[in-house]
């Protein structure tokens, strides 16, 4: 039975009137939040709602401008993560902080105090692993581990410090469905043992699966605390964004209308020390359809995108063809002139130059594609086009034509997607289109991809979000350790089958294992 209060009769932790101001920006505005012992409590909100600021205050990364934190009814000042951990607060960030060259045990030891020897870590690691089903091999090098195994290291590292509150930020973003379900079982056991969990996620169905209470932030304020099990995912999303979030709809059925992209026996060496080689990749995408590519991070998605976009060149021209023209040895600009457009995973620094204004980023991207028409885009025209993108894709900006770095992640993602779609490319290849964006922005982006395909473009979507792929894709394949599975109609896949492929297990092997 989940406890309702700590032994002292108070909430485990209570935030009262927390505000954080950055100049004119009020990131948190008098936020009240209470978490009980053993509770899994969700913290929800769209991009820029104030979630990250709030948990950084709770974990001691930043100080609040106003308000107080009570720990079991006692006011506390948390001046650093070290002080947070001493109090009993642990945090697993969305992006792992591990050293690839070190072993599991070494990665855990370096994060703990000097009192922890490797022998002690190995012993305690075994205890924790057995107690919570978090299997780890102490002497395995981290670079050989899957995303799910790396996340286990982060969680175990926190658990070894006996936390009473565990903060998890988007914990399933790089997990297969099977790994995610294993995590949920672990969290349920932690909760039953009295550990409180503050759970941050954009995946509302898993919030409904795990949590009994959810606090929703909008524009830095609490707009409600609800039981997510009593609301649908669409109702929760509407509370987050302030209006109804509709479903993605296809205006016309997607009917393939002719080959637009062909990848033929593409093989490439790894791009870096721990990069993934591509092995005999074959892929066809036709005009008028969306092809989805699923996979766990680190299995070759980045390398495949670089090969398709021309950032890395193949050794044969016919390894990649766009609109029937071999271009495997042609760079990004040449492929753009064939009618292709590309949106990489990393929006700031790769998709957009941080210190350049939106109009300048538009000019950089569109100039190569326009050579065959007018030779260049005038600066004023680029400003008008950037303004049209901002309007059409609901990009919320702090000023007219701001630098890219001044936009929130979700708004910058809408801009870079819109920048490519607005010129109606014959082929669009996009890597992680809705990574880390809220429900409203995700819906807008997915709808734009569906509409583009309905107008006759070929769209290739590389994504770790299976819900996304099942919503928008017409056909799908899975990439694992640089190899691509057979491309099949979406209705021939199940999430379980995709998850097994993502783990490198064939459907027949999975069936045998289940028996």
TrEMBL record:
GO terms, molecular function: ATP binding; ATP hydrolysis activity
Highest taxon of source: Bacteria
Matches recorded under SUPFAM superfamilies: P-loop containing nucleoside triphosphate hydrolases
Signal peptide: none
A Pfam family assignment: ABC_tran
Family: Belongs to the ABC transporter superfamily.
The protein's name: Nucleoside ABC transporter ATP-binding protein
Source organism of the structure: Microvirga subterranea
């Amino acid at each position: 039975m989940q406890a309702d209060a700590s032994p002292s009769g108070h909430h485990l932790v209570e935030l009262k009137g927390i505000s954080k101001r950055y100049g004119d920006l009020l990131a948190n505005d008098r936020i009240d939040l209470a978490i009980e012992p053993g509770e899994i409590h969700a913290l929800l909100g769209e991009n820029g709602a104030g979630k990250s600021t709030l948990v950084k205050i709770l974990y001691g990364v930043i100080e609040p401008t106003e308000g107080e934190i009570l720990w079991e009814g006692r006011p506390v000042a948390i001046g650093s993560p070290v002080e947070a951990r001493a109090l009993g607060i642990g945090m697993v960030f969305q992006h792992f902080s591990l050293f690839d060259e070190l072993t599991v045990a070494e990665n855990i030891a370096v994060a703990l105090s000097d009192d922890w020897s490797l022998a002690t870590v190995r012993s305690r690691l075994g205890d924790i692993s057995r107690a919570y089903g978090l299997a780890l091999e102490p002497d395995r090098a981290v670079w050989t581990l899957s995303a799910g195994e790396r996340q286990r290291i982060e969680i175990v590292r926190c658990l070894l410090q006996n936390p009473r509150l565990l903060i998890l930020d988007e914990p399933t973003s790089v997990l297969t469905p099977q790994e995610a379900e294993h995590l949920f079982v672990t969290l349920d056991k932690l909760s039953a043992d009295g550990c409180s969990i503050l759970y941050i996620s954009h995946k509302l169905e898993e919030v409904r699966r795990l949590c009994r209470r959810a606090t929703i932030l909008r524009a830095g304020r609490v707009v409600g605390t609800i039981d997510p099990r009593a609301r649908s995912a669409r109702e929760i999303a509407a509370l987050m964004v302030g209006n109804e979030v509709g479903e993605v709809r296809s205006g016309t059925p997607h009917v393939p209308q002719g080959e637009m992209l062909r990848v033929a026996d593409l093989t490439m060496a790894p791009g870096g020390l721990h990069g993934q080689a591509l092995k005999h990749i074959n892929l066809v995408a036709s005009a008028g359809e969306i092809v989805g590519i699923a996979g766990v991070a680190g299995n070759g998605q980045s390398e495949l995108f670089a090969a398709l976009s021309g950032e890395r060149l193949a050794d044969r021209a016919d390894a990649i063809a766009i609109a029937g023209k071999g271009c495997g040895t042609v760079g990004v600009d040449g492929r753009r002139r064939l009618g292709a457009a590309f949106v990489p995973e990393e929006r700031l620094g790769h998709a957009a130059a941080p210190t350049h204004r939106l109009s300048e980023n538009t000019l950089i991207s569109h100039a190569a594609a326009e050579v065959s028409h007018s030779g260049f885009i005038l600066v004023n025209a680029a400003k008008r086009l950037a303004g049209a993108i901002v309007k059409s894709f609901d990009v919320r900006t702090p000023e007219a034509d701001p630098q890219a770095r001044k936009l929130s992640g979700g708004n910058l993602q809408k801009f870079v997607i819109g920048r490519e779609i607005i010129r109606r490319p014959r082929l669009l290849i996009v890597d992680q289109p809705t990574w880390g964006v809220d429900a409203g922005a995700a819906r807008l982006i997915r709808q734009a991809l569906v509409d583009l395909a309905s107008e006759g473009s070929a769209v290739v979507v590389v994504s770790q979000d299976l819900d996304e792929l099942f919503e928008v894709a017409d056909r799908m394949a899975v990439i694992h350790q640089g190899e691509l599975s057979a491309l099949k109609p979406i209705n021939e896949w199940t999430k379980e089958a995709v998850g097994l492929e993502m783990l490198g297990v064939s459907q027949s092997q999975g069936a045998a294992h289940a028996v």
